[in-house]
Structures are given as C-alpha cells and as structure tokens.
Amino acid sequence: MDSHDTAFLAWHFEPVLSVAAALLAALACYVALDLSHRLAGERLRASAPWLAGAALVLGTGLWSVHFLALAGRPLNLPVGYGGALTLAGWTLGVLFSAFALHGAFAGGTRPGRRVAAALALAAAVVAGPALYVSDMRLAPAPQWQPLLPALAALGVFVLCLACGALLAGARGADWRWRAAAAGLGGAGLAAAQHAVVLAAQVPEGAVSLHEHGWLADTTLALLAGVATPALCVTLLALSIMESRMRRALRAAIERIEESSRTDALTRLPNRRSFEARLNAAARHAAQSPSAMAVLFVGLDQFKPVNDSFGRRIGDLLLQAVAQRLRVAAGPRALLARVGGDEFVLLLGPEAGRSESAAMAQKLLEALAEPFEIEKRTLSLGASIGVVLYPRDGSLTTAMANAEAASHYAKRNGGSTFAFFEPRMLGDAREQVELLRDLRHAVAKNQLELVYQPKVHAPTGEIMGVEALLRWHHPQRGMVSPAAFIPLAERHGLIVTLGQWVIEEACRQARVWRDQGLRMRVAINLSVHQLRQPDLAGRIAAALKRHQINPNLLTCEITESAAMEDAEGTRAIFEKLAAVGVHLSIDDFGTGFCNFAMLRKMPAEELKIDRSFVLDLEASADARAVVDAVVKLGQALGRKVVAEGVETEGQAQVLRALGCDVLQGYLYAKPMSAKALALWAMNDVGPRAIEFSASLFQETQPVPVH
Ligand code: C2E
Ligand code: CA
Ligand code: CA
Fold first, then answer.
1. Which residue, among 101, 120, 13, 122, has the nearest Cα to 53 in the 3D structure?
2. CATH number of 451-684: 3.20.20.450, 3.40.720.10, 2.60.40.60, 3.40.50.720?
3. How many Cα atoms sit within 13 Å of 370 on the Cβ side?
4. Which residues of 397-425 are buried (b: 16+ CB within 10 A; e: fewer)?
5. Residues 122, 62: contact at Cβ < 8 Å?
C-alpha cells in the first residue's frame, strides 16, 4: 500500500499525563543519580547493588513514562500488549541504563566512557517506545518516520553530556545539582520518548491485535503510575538512610582519628601528631632548607599541684596553661602537648636564634602570672629548652635535644630557657644514673646533714643552725643538694628524703642536747612535703620520739613554695605552728609575695635571698630591697635573716639596715655536727664567735669560782 493514499491517526497526548510522566522521569533520574554517585572511585563488585538499584529505577522510570503517557489513549484506540516485547523493552532500558550509569559515574573523567554512556541512553530511549508500540501489534502496522527518532536520540545524547557537565566534580555530591540535572534529564527523556511515539504513523482503522490480551494498557498504566513511584521512593529512602549512616560512620571515624591526633585534655595536637608534623617539616627542609626551632616547655612545680590538689585541679591548670601558651605562641607556631606537664612548639620557617629567644621569653611571661583555678591562686614556672635547626643537627633528634636543654634549664633553677648544647645530652644520661643511685641513698647511709650557724647580727653570737643536706656518692663524691633535690622533687623521692631530714635533725638535736648544747635547728621543707596532709603529725612524732622541745625546730619554706597555694600553705603553717615549731620564709624576695597572706601566715622569720645580699655593696636596688624587707619584717613583727653573707662589708650594711640574724661563709661554712659541737664546747671554730649563752641554758654547768 502506498503511504500517500493512507490516512493516519493523530496522536493526542493528554497534557496532564505528559507532565506526570515527565515528573516521574525526573524522580527516577534523581533517584538513579542519587544511588549512582556511590559508584565513583569504587570497584564494580563493591558498588554492584547500588548500580543495580540505579539501573532498575532509571530503566523502570523510562518504561513508566511511556505507559503513563499512553494511559490517556492518545490514539483513541483500545490497545493491549503481548508482553514479550514490553518486557524486552523494559529489560533493554534497565541494561542500557546500567551501562550508561556505570560509564558515567564509575568511569571517572574519561570522556570516551561518557560518550558511550550517552549513546546507550539515547539507544534505550529510542528502542523502548518502538518496542512497546510494536507490542500492541497494530494492524495494519504503523509506518515509522525516521527523522523524529533520530532527533530524539541526538537530543538525549546531548542532554546526557549536558547533565554530565552539570554534575562534574564536587557538584555531583550536592543534591541540589543532582535535582537540577534530574529535572532537566527527566523532562528531556520524557519528551524524547513522546517524539519516538509520534514517529509511529498508525493507519486509520488500525486495531490492536492484543486488545483483549492478558496485558491491558490500563494495567500497565497503573503499574507505571503507582509501582514505579513506590519503587523510586523506596530506593530513595534506602539511599538517604544509607547516606546518613555513612555520614555518621565517617564522623565517628573522624572523631577517632582526631582523638588519636589530639590531646583530649587541652585539645592540642599530641606527641604522635607533633612528631608526624616534625618529620614532614624535616622532609620539606631537606629540599628547601629553612631555619626552624623546637622549643620544649617543661612546667616547673606542676607535680606538687597535682599531688596535693588532685587530678581535677591539675587538669584545669593544664588547660589554662595550654590556653596561655596557645595565645602566646600565636597562630603560626605549632604547639603540642607531649607529656603530662610538657609542651613543645615548632617555630618556622625563618626562626633563628633571636626569634626563638623572644618566643621563649614570651612563653615564660605568659606563665608568670599566677593562675586562678577554682578560687585558688596557683603559680607555675617553665623551663624551656630550645633547639635550632639546622644548627643543632637534624630535626629528628630535635625533640630529645630540646628536652635535654629544658632539663638543663630546670636544673638551673627553672623559669628560664636554655639553648641546646651537646654537653646537655650527657647531662640527661647522668640524671638517669643519679636518680637510680639516689633511690638507694637513704638505705645505704649516704646522706648527712651539715649545719651552718645563724648569727645574731647585733652581738655576733650564734643563735642556731640551718641543717643542709649532703649526699656522699660512692663514685662522684659529694653531690650538691642543688643538683639532687630538684631531681628528687621531680621523681617523687623528696618526701622520703625530707622525712629522713626531719628524723635526723631531731636525732642530732637530741645528741647535742645530751652534750649540753641546746641548739636551735632549722630544716628546709620542700613544697612537696607541704602538700603531705600528715606533715605536721610526722614532725610532732619525730620531736616527741627524740624528746625535743618543738620551739627548737624551725621549718624553712621558700617563698615561692609558700605562695604557690597561699591558702593551703596557711592551713599547713597553722598546723605546724600548733605543733609549736617556728616557721621561716626562705629565699624571700624571689617569689610572688602576697602581702595580705604574709600578714596572716604565722611565720616568725623572713630570710632574704642570697642574691640580694650578694649585690648589696654594689647595687642600690639590692639595698632598697633589703631595706624594704627589714621594714616589712619590723611592721609585721617578724625577724629578718640575711643569708649568704660573705664579706664584712655586707655584714655592716645588713647590720646598719637592721637585719636581725646573719648567716654565711663570713661566719662559717656548713659543717658536720661533730665539728659544730667541738666548736661550741671548746671554742675551736672557724672564727672567734661566741655561741649565745641561751644555747647552753639549763645544761651549762654553773661556773665555779
Ligand atoms: P638554701 O636553703 O637557700 O640554703 C642556703 C644555701 O646557701 C646552702 O647551700 C648553703 O651552703 C649556701 N650558703 C650559705 N652561706 C653561703 C655563703 O656565704 N655564700 C654562698 N655562696 N653560699 C652560701 P646548699 O647547702 O648547697 O643548699 C642549697 C639548697 O638546697 C638550699 O638552699 C635548699 O634550698 C636546698 N636544701 C638543702 N638541704 C635541704 C634539705 O634538707 N631539704 C630540702 N628540701 N632542701 C634542702
Ligand atoms: Ca634554707
Ligand atoms: Ca635560702
């Protein structure tokens, strides 16, 4: 039959159904895109379920568009379907969708895969409607116009590439871009399928041979309008749930990773993370050398705070310290917490000696102000070791070297910084050995107390002695307390040593007493001992054991230790005063003197620090300080003692200023108990000094004339 003689039926699509079909197509596209973005960078085996879901939803979506649009019977002709070709069209749609989605999403950015994907979808869009229309078995058969399907295929091809461009890069992960692409794609696919259908020229009077078959157009329209949206919504819900779970999982992993990199207490990077950054910096520096510095910050006096006030206060203090260090270090330096009371700072690039010194000074200043933690005033210092790169060797040893320098700074009194020098490494090794030996010093009887007289300034008579600890090391000989007391304090040995000192001083006082010498003895207490709740009890017990009158014992406590926790110190001072011992504030003028507290402290004595005495003859400032301390002592009714008096000139100034008691090499160096007793009894001493008559009271035999 000649086509020119034939009249054809006109297709009349219902606009509402067409729009519904386009919306369904957009929904299916969106869900397919949503599921498919999981394919990126994954192996097919791992992502196969997602690909299957996406292909199913897109293929079914395309299939539904057709049957939904045809629900309005655009040919005004009752039709039915054979089923086989419809099934083939659906299968083809699903398979081609799978190919297209895999190519577009799992194929990375390779353009060939994208083009193949677009071609596959174009083929599915043209083949599907052709098969469905064929499945109606129209008789006479429709004549197909090639132009419209060709245009539709071209349109779909271009559209697919456009959607691919729309979702390129990070945009693919954003649901809004996916929605935009789905809207565009859905409308385009629906229009293309319509166009293919329009290409079928159905002769007038044609009938569908499957009209009364098992698969009515209404059944398929129902499936398309109900089952497909249900499928879309189900898969979308699944996808959303999975995305949420994935996000929650990723957040949990990030938290764990983050906590393995940061210190939980201060939120600063931890040692591991710092070392990783340091290694990275080292690698970088190997290529483009630049000056860097590592500052190791060890806190002084942190352990006693922790021991005496408990972990909680200690933790709060560390947080406050971290905060101050963070502010002082600034945003460009890398600050980390690498140990209980240890922090490190990486400075660079272009951090030379002067920059590092300035930074160390800044950090020290940041910590100098006392901390207010839960109404307590706590003071801390820091010892900072500085390593310069490349001057001091490789960055990999920088941490250890900086730590050695920090220990060196601490041994030199703390609250200072030191640049690393190779000899400090030996020091660190030596410290370990020294500590090992110190643990046995008490048991091995290697400790001794030596005694240095305290002289009454106006009369020059000996008023009492200060007991100073000595360690006779089997190999090293005499080790200075300045070397081993800080070590003992750092490693928790000081309480044992301190207890030995209390016991030994009382025992010696008893021995002298039995020899007829009523000697006043002063002992030094470490800040760690002050934090012992039973310190007063222990001292009282020792005094009782040796039957020593408590007012013969003086406890010297450094000003910085006393003011570290002024309230706590006051409580312990009151307990000690209740025992009846005298109290003396040692190294006065070097710590943070809180005048209000000082007033309330039941201390009898202020001991001006040696540094002021040393400068007395040369420096007007030192004289002014001593003068002020004497005036303060007088105002508060406290005795003022000057220690470290080495010259007659110093003694004169001190006397003129009104000091009550003098102590120093000018009068006597610390001496053994025996030497002191001999001097007292037989007047064989370093200088012709009288022992105060009061020392012999009760026991001195009445001179017989
Ligand atoms: P400190 O309590 O300030 O003791 C005074 C130090 O100055 C002693 O040093 C003493 O020998 C020294 N000294 C005395 N007169 C002079 C002088 O005229 N010139 C100079 N240059 N120095 C003088 P030492 O015995 O080496 O003790 C050093 C520090 O070790 C003491 O300083 C004290 O803080 C601590 N220490 C000593 N014995 C004990 C102890 O039994 N327990 C505790 N916790 N600390 C102790
Ligand atoms: Ca002292
Ligand atoms: Ca002192």
1. 101
2. 3.20.20.450
3. 19
4. bbbbbbbbbbbbbbbeebbbbbbbeeebb
5. no
User: Whose C-alpha lies nearest to ligand 1, atom 8?
Assistant: 468
Residues in the chain, total: 705
Closest ligand to C-alpha of residue 555 is 2
- What is the Cα–Cα distance from 424 to 413, expressed in whole angstroms? 15
Average pLDDT over the chain reads 88
The pocket around ligand 1, CB under 6 angstroms, is made up of 452, 468-469, 480-482, 485, 498, 501, 523-526, 556, 586-587, 610, 643-646, 664-665, 670
Radius of gyration of the chain (CA): 46
Nearest ligand to the CA of 664 is 1
CATH class in words for 271-425: alpha beta
If one counts every other C-beta atom within 10 angstroms of the C-beta of residue 704, the result is 4
- Element holding 416 (H helix, E strand): strand 416-419
DSSP string spanning 305-355? HHHHH-HHHHHHHHHHHHHHHHHHH-TTSEEEEEETTEEEEEE-SS--HHH
Q: H helices of 584-685, where? A: 595-600, 610-614, 620-636, 648-657, 673-682
Do 31 and 240 touch, CB atoms closer than 8 A?
no
Q: pLDDT for 209-227, tens place per residue?
A: 998 888 988 899 999 999 9
**Cα–Cα distance measured from residue 577 to residue 553, given in angstroms and rounded to the nearest whole number:** 11
Residue 682 alpha carbon to ligand 1 centre in Å: 27
For the chain, the structural domain boundaries read: 10-229, 271-425, 451-684
The token duo for 413 is 């009194």
Question: pLDDT tens, 117-137?
Answer: 999 999 999 999 999 999 999
How far, in Å, are 101, 337, 595, 659 from residue 633 at the CA level?
Answer: 90, 43, 11, 9
Distance CA 231, CA 215 (A): 21
- Tokens 């000057």, residue? 642
Specify the amino acid at residue 395.
L
| H-helix segments, 533-663 | 535-545, 559-564, 566-579, 595-600, 610-614, 620-636, 648-657
pLDDT, position 625: 80
Between 393 and 180, the higher pLDDT residue: 180
Q: Which residues contact 263 (CB under 8 A, 6 or more apart)?
A: 269, 270, 336, 337
Helix (H, G, I), strand (E, B) or coil at 246: helix
* pTM for the whole structure: 0.50
CA atoms of 670 and 687, how far apart (whole Å): 13
d(CA 500, CA 520): 18
